[in-house]
Amino acid sequence: MTAAEKNGGSKLLGRIVKRPMLALSSRQFLLIVAALYTALFNLPFLLHGYAAAFETPNTSITFLVALPLLLFGILYLTFSATLWSRLAKPVIGIVSIASLPVLYGELTYGVVFDNDMMRNIFETDLSEALGYLSVSSIGFLLAGSAATITALLSIEIRHQPIKQELIGRAASTSLVLFLGLILTYRCYGEFAATARNNNHLKRELVPFEWIDSAADYWADRWIESQQAIVVIDPAPKQSGHPGSLPHITVVIVGETARADHFQYSGYPRATNQFTEKFE
Fold first, then answer.
1. By 3-state DSSP, what share of the chain in percent is helix, strand and coil, each rounded to 5?
2. Crossing angle of the two packed helices 115-123 and 208-226, in degrees rounded to 10
3. How many CA atoms lie within 13 A of 112 on its CB side?
4. 114-146 pLDDT, tens per residue?
5. Is the pTM of this model over 0.85?
6. CA within 13 Å, CB half, 151
7. How far apart are CA 271 and CA 262, in angstroms?
8. Cα 45 from Cα 68, distance rounded (Å)
């Protein structure tokens, strides 16, 4: 191969890499992302929602149709309000890749990534966490991540001038909100009954639940870091009692961590940093 041929091949490859295969407006991109999150990432929620609906007497066809449409509307409204300009693709990429283990965990093990799960994730020793990995989980995460990155690199989002963008998004979100309100009104009783009798369903919503739980965890950690433990009495003594019986105070302390997950027992992570000084 001559130098000219190599140079021509390099230029062609550069054009292929630099030029996206699909050009979308921002609203088209948001519609596709909302549909993907509805049909794929929230598949466990829809399956369990339908299972709960079929157990409820007099479930209507309207409710079965309205459930995914209302979820789609909520996702579109959320993405439309938060994803702007050049941040749209990176944010969606990060959130989607982070949502893959959530989807795998819900489909494979039926676990939900709520506050307790987030605390377990962030406070579990790395070597212990790696024990939960398997060939199927690694393959799922790698394939999903590769598909996400490839799809985003193949898309060019064409944004309009800010004024037109605002007007367009306001119109589309207003339409989606209007349709969502109509669906909710038509099936309000069924939505209320399903939600009231199946409180666990809201914990399966992706990405809302895991993002909210992760934010709560780190907010709690920050609050805890600002609080100091005050020792009221370093050497407490039982006071006398005027009666014939002693005055007894019972203090009950509850902790859900296993004994081998305390620093006292040699656990490498700081699981009881506030009481470590009293060891």
1. 70, 5, 30
2. 60
3. 19
4. 888 888 888 876 666 677 788 999 999 999 999
5. no
6. 15
7. 6
8. 10
